[in-house]
Amino acid sequence: MKRCIKYKGLLLLLLPSFVWFFIFKYVPMYGVIVAFKDYKPMLGIMESDWAGFKYFERLFTNSQFFTLLKNTLIISTYKLIFVFPAPILLALLLNEVRHERFKKAIQTVTYLPHFISWVVIGGLIQTVLSPTNGVVNYVLGLMGVEPIKFMMIPELFRGIVIAADIWKEAGWGSIVYLAAISGIDQDMYEAAEIDGAGRLRQAVSITLPALAPVIVMMFILRIGNMMDAGFDGIVNLYNPTVYGVADIFDTYAYRVGLIDFNFSYSTAISLFKNVVGLLLLIFASKITKRISGYGIW
Amino acid sequence: MLYRKTSTGEAGFQVFNYSFLAFIAFLMIYPFWELLIVSVSPAVEASKIGLKLIPRGFTLEAYRMVFESKLIVYGYFNSIFRTVVGTSITVFLCFLTAYPLAKKMLPARNAFTVYYLIPMFFSGGLVPNFLLIKSLGLLDTIWALIIPTLLSTFQILIMRNFIMSLPESLEESALVDGAGFFTILLRIVIPLSMPIFATVALWEAVAHWNSWFDAMIYTRSNRNVVLQLLLRRVLIEHNNEGITDSLQGDEGVVTKTVEAATVLVTIGPVILMYPFLQKYFIKGVLIGSLKG
Questions:
Q1: Interatomic CA distance for residues A90 and A183, integer angstroms
Q2: What tens digit of pLDDT does each residue of A108-152 get?
Q3: A49: which strand partners?
Q4: Touching A: B residues 89-118, CB under 8 Å
Q5: Whether complex ipTM tops 0.95
Q6: pTM as predicted
Q7: Pairing relation of β-strands A49-50 and A37-38?
Q8: Do B122 and A253 touch (CB under 8 A)?
């Protein structure tokens, strides 16, 4: 108690953010009880009738549930397989570049898309893939391929999302790996060179093993986020014809909740997703702690 | 590095590597370049298919149309307002939170840390947040875009870790010299924390400038529109019709150039400032990835 009085200055500083967190983070957590109620806007959260697990039953018995689960996991897994290694590969290739200015130029250009919003990226992708005047169809046309309506073909949608993600984030993601590479002891390379190792040998035997802890750490963090398959990217690229392969928990909860105004059902979907995500995250952080000796905080 | 002999295999790899990276860079930059070309092209040229490397014809008609639109003016004003105001308050509040959390003498320090950490792992989700904003009467005001995003646990943690890395002895010696609590903050801690302020500010500013979803669900009237939302209407909602081929002919042709001009006007500030700020961003990422 004495300490509280002595350090009241510090406590006072915390006050605004304490209140803010309570209102904007903890009140919505309480708000999840909407999922267990028949929410009526007229009545508000308190007065609306209890619905028990009705909305969860509706979710789990709906065939839509498996589509959502499948899409979320498939898109996340694709991202682990294709998006995750892209920055590592880019960093390795950039590391082999000897001309500083060329390297700088490439880096500047590849970092750029990270700073552009998904709305713009979505628009750009649609323009580039347009069947009437998109440049991709132009190049395909030169090879004698008929124009393809890329955005309307369900089989292609996930591929497009993944490619867009790589395009947007690979350069930016490479920063961490390049930093890790620059921390590697240069003597090791010289020693390897004297032993007759070529550049490839050095990359495989020195650079990659040195990067391994960073890679493992980033990988596990990604696993913790499996339930987030990337709302922004999907919402700005999808359209009704590809809902079947594009819908993830987040996009579906958004349409059900804020477009169809089915508040309780939408909250139930989000809650399910958040709880599973939370479990994955705890699991992932336990593993990182074990492997790297320090957790994510 | 000294006298290396390059084998043919390595030389081959170097050629491949340089061309491959140059190709990647081309892929990154081309869509933006095409946008620029289309935006200054006469409408007929813009709708033609093909690689657009140099403009055929030149007109600023599209830009004239864009800047004549009242919506763009509103959008600009609101985007700048939310970015500047939101970012400044964020840096201020974030410091107020991070500083005490960095101090070992803070009473109940662990409890506070847990309090700020929990929201990182669990959140109410879309609807409860929407209902909160609604019941606070913030719907369809610019404050709905600023107040709910003021703080994030992640930023607080980064700033806290940075402050913890500052030498404790500086503050102690100031205390011995008779400086009060606020003097120490103003004269020592804040000046030393400038790099982390810049980091958080840059991230927050880009996030504000680029965010659209909160604007889409919390604002209605044109008076409160932000640029990204405007873009979404122009690009995504219109384009979704475009890809079903219903939009052809003159009207569609004009829109192409206007679309491009709108995008460029919107991303302009980011692109223009980006080369100068790049090194700070990179520093920021590296500070962010360090763990305390």
A1: 17
A2: 999 999 999 999 999 999 889 988 888 999 999 999 889 999 999
A3: A38
A4: 93-94, 96-97, 99-101, 103, 105-107, 112, 115-118
A5: no
A6: 0.88
A7: antiparallel
A8: no
